[in-house]
Specification:
Elements: E1 3-9, E2 13-20, E3 25-32, H1 37-49, E4 63-67, E5 79-80, H2 83-94, E6 100-104, E7 109-114, E8 120-126, H3 134-143, H4 148-154, H5 169-181, H6 186-207, E9 213-217, H7 224-234, E10 237-239, H8 248-263
Parallel strand pairs: 1-4, 4-5, 6-9, 9-10
Antiparallel strand pairs: 1-2, 2-3, 6-7, 7-8
Helix pairs in contact: 2-8, 3-4, 3-5, 6-7
């Protein structure tokens, strides 16, 4: 049996997926990124490889593709492919019916339209500001003195929404701290934060050609409050993926590796 790997080294997390020659996902791993992207890739690869009895090292993979922020730093990679292409392919092999993605990473937000073969049809990217990214949500959770999972669920309890007007992460954090200090309901402030991010995703979704449905990828896809806010703002269904949405980049890279490796 041949095995193929995809390693997605992001700014916040490094992910690895290993597929067999039939396209079955046999192992995956997600680790917090280190300052050194090579170390991040090594940790994710090592953790995934440990789960496959026939493998002892990344060198034994028939083909390996790196993607993400640190895609050029993946040890033993045969080549690297952009995370935009890999997220599109990852979603395509998970659910071929989905044709539009909002990928919310640690430092940027992307809208991606998927063609019928899993390639990228069109995309838009916001990398000028951290607002609405994973780092933004971490900052908001810190302002609430909560864990990130706790914060992501908080808005689900809100009956009303307190608007957040600041667009910058720094100013938004100050605004939130002021509102909390004034004794405003924390769930309603959280709802305002989720709504503000959803509105930022609106342009990305439209540029990705979203009409009746869209899916979310990246770690922020696990934010149920954000998912509901996006459905409210876009007025379309957010499709849940059967595979961890944070793995989509690594999965797409592994699928590209499988296709290229089998064609050699």
């Amino acid at each position: 049996m041949k095995y193929f790997g995809g390693c997605d080294v992001g700014s916040t997390y490094a992910k690895c997926v290993i597929l067999d020659e039939n396209g079955k996902m046999v192992a995956d791993a997600t680790v917090r990124s280190k300052i050194n992207p090579v170390k991040s890739a090594e940790l994710a690869l090592g953790e995934a490889i440990e789960k496959v009895a026939e493998l002892n090292s990344a060198e034994q993979l028939s083909y390996l593709i790196g993607t993400g922020y640190g895609r050029n730093k993946v040890p033993f990679a045969d080549e690297n492919i952009s995370e935009i292409s890999c997220h599109a392919m990852g979603v395509h092999v998970t659910n071929p019916e989905v044709k539009a993605i909002i990928d919310i990473g640690g430092q940027d937000v992307k809208g991606i339209a998927i063609d019928k073969d899993g390639t990228v049809k069109n995309f838009a990217m916001n990398d000028k500001c951290a607002a609405g990214t994973g780092r933004f949500f971490e900052a908001m959770a810190n302002a609430f003195e909560m864990s990130l999972p706790e914060f992501c669920k908080l808005s689900l309890e809100a009956k009303n929404t307190i608007p957040i007007t600041a667009q910058c992460t720094v100013f938004a954090e100050s605004e939130v701290i002021s509102l909390v200090g004034e004794g405003k309901p924390m769930d309603e402030i959280a709802a305002g934060i989720q709504l503000a991010v959803a509105k930022r995703c609106f342009v990305m979704a439209k540029k990705a050609g979203a009409t009746d449905s869209i899916t979310l990828t990246g770690g922020c896809a696990k934010n149920e409050g954000l998912k509901r806010a996006i459905e409210k703002v876009l007025k379309i269904k957010v499709v849940d993926l059967a595979i961890d949405p944070q793995l989509m980049g690594a999965l797409g890279a592994a699928e590209y590796a499988r296709q290229k490796g089998l064609s050699k």
